[in-house]
Amino acid sequence: MTIKLTGKTQADLDADAAETATTERNDAARSYLRETDWYIIRNVEIGARTPNEVIERRAAERLKVE
């Protein structure tokens, strides 16, 4: 087994972990928004109703994106 020393402090490692978590949260939120864009487009183009659950979750997912 080989162990690589990175020269990073615990604070650096914690910052990297926090950045990774933020990136993953942003990616998941953006993915949901992309997957449900068609509801909004359909609403704008033909006036079709967008389910309240989708509207509410899209609002929550937008708040997650930094």
Describe this structure in words.
With 66 residues, the chain is mostly helical. The chain has a domain at 20-64. Helices cover 76% and strands 0% of the residues. Helix 1 (10-46) runs antiparallel to helix 2 (52-64). It is rod-shaped, with a radius of gyration of 19 Å.
Question: How is this fold's topology laid out?
Answer:
Elements: H1 10-46, H2 52-64
Helix pairs in contact: 1-2
- Estimate the global geometry from the Cα principal axes: rod-shaped
Gyration radius (Cα, Å) is 19 Å
Quote the distance from N terminus to C terminus. 38 Å
- How many H/I helices? 2
Number of strands: 0
Strand % is under 5%
Could you describe the largest sheet, including whether it forms a barrel?
none
| String of helices and strands | HH
Helix content: over 70%
Based on helices, strands and strand pairing, what is the structural class?
mainly alpha
**Residue-averaged pLDDT:** 91
The unreliable regions are none
Quick take:
This protein is an all-alpha fold. Helix content is 76%, strand content 0%.
Which characteristics define this entry?
mainly alpha; 66 residues; 76% helix; 2 helices
